[in-house]
């Protein structure tokens, strides 16, 4: 009977154990699920704020969840790992997860009473473990060695429950660690004592060195003050000597200043007199300039009249030669004889021409007819800048017209390259800047007439502009050149236009370097608009490629020729007296 009772109790205990095992696994799974709900970030631990996420899963308020967190956080570090959460929260689930079932188990099964008794016995075991641990720590003398004995106690209790065979090794380890900690504390106290003694000795040494340094500083300060006083005394004496010297020099300078002021007053009076003389000389110069201009105009008119007379003399010479070839030898001899006698009352054609020419220019009476034929037929006479007419030039090479054209513009715009391209048909990229004035002559055929252009190349630098302005007075035309790749050279065009103070003077605005289109800074429309506003001729060309160089020069020559023809129509023509033919025999 007793055996049956024991067997029945054993079977019930086994069933209870199996049920407890099944419930424990379910509780463990539920605990892990709750931990995953709290640890959404996969940190491996949960905090007090993460615990509030179970508010929807459990019928607990926020304060209850905080109390549960404080209960589970036995070490007080502020967070719960999975192990801490599982070990403490599974018991919580048994009590609060299903309260009705827990109450039913407490009231309906004897196993529940057994578990409560077991928990009471477990509490007594914990108190006994605490007592044994305190006795162990006292025997080892480690009661006050560890700052946190709770962790050591937990480890000792766990080894006692799970691994009793390792408990003796752990106690020996605690004894050795305690001994080492005591030795380390003793050594630390000795080192602190030695350090205090060393600090006291060091303070004494520092105090001694400080006193010695104070004494040395005082001695050095006294020595420096003595040296400074001696140096100051010597310096004062030197300064007094220099001051006396400077005062003497100041007196000399004051006397010199008086002399200079006297000389300055004399120079001022002389300058005033010189200024008055300069004003008088300026007035005289202006009067002479007006006289010179008037004389120049009269001379120009005389030159034009002389050119007409030269042309008439040339035609008369040709007629005379034709007449001389037509007469007989006897008539020729008689003509030579009558020409050698030259009676005053005989008035033939040749003498009339010579008398008219000699009245204008005495040197023409001694000029041979061959030289007259070599003179250009243009009424402008010889080229500007030439002193004599070369007799060796033939009639075929003599131009019908000759015009003086001045090229102006800023430096490096390509004036010299334009002349070389127009006159020689070549381009030299390494051309240096023009110094002063240079000129070239080029003959063109314009409307059946031989027109010679005397092209004057001027320097574009500022220091040569006064020389350049003098050539505008006798110029027949002006070409203002600018660089299409440099806006500054185009801006200077207005300055060059202001320098040309001659009325009715043909002016051509010429934009050079038109082949450099990628580097262009001045559009063609801008140059054309300026030319239209100032009533100028406008062209763009390239001295490098030769584009439009000849065309613009031909156009300028045609304009000059037409202007001269218009002026010739207004010029008073001198008509010679009627000629009487002389009988040959």
Looking at the structure, the CATH topology of the domain at 401-570 is Rossmann fold
Biggest sheet layout:
6 strands, mixed
Helix residue percentage: 55-70%
Number of extended strands: 8
CATH architecture of the domain at 401-570: 3-Layer(aba) Sandwich
Strand ordering within the main sheet: 4-5-3-6-7-8
What Rg, in angstroms, do the CA atoms define?
66 Å
Fill in the keyword field for this structure.
Rossmann fold; disordered C terminus; alpha/beta; 8% strand; six-stranded mixed sheet; 585 residues; Recoverin, domain 1; two-stranded antiparallel sheet; 64% helix; single chain; elongated; 17 helices
What is the secondary structure topology, with strand pairs?
Blueprint: H1 2-38, E1 45-46, H2 48-51, H3 62-72, E2 80-81, H4 82-97, H5 99-108, H6 110-140, H7 149-162, H8 167-326, H9 329-341, H10 349-360, H11 369-374, E3 401-408, H12 415-423, E4 437-446, E5 449-458, H13 465-470, E6 477-483, H14 487-491, H15 493-499, E7 507-512, H16 524-534, E8 537-540, H17 549-570
Parallel strand pairs: 3-5, 3-6, 6-7, 7-8
Antiparallel strand pairs: 1-2, 4-5
Structure described in brief:
The protein is α/β, with parallel strands linked by helices. It is 64% helix and 8% strand.
Describe the protein.
With 585 residues, this protein is of the alpha/beta class. Among the domains are: 13-168, EF-hand (Recoverin, domain 1), CATH 1.10.238.10; 401-570, P-loop containing nucleotide triphosphate hydrolases (Rossmann fold), CATH 3.40.50. Helix content is 64%, strand content 8%. The strands form 2 sheets. The protein has a 6-stranded mixed sheet, with helices on both faces. Helix 5 (99-108) packs across helix 6. It is elongated and about 170 Å long.
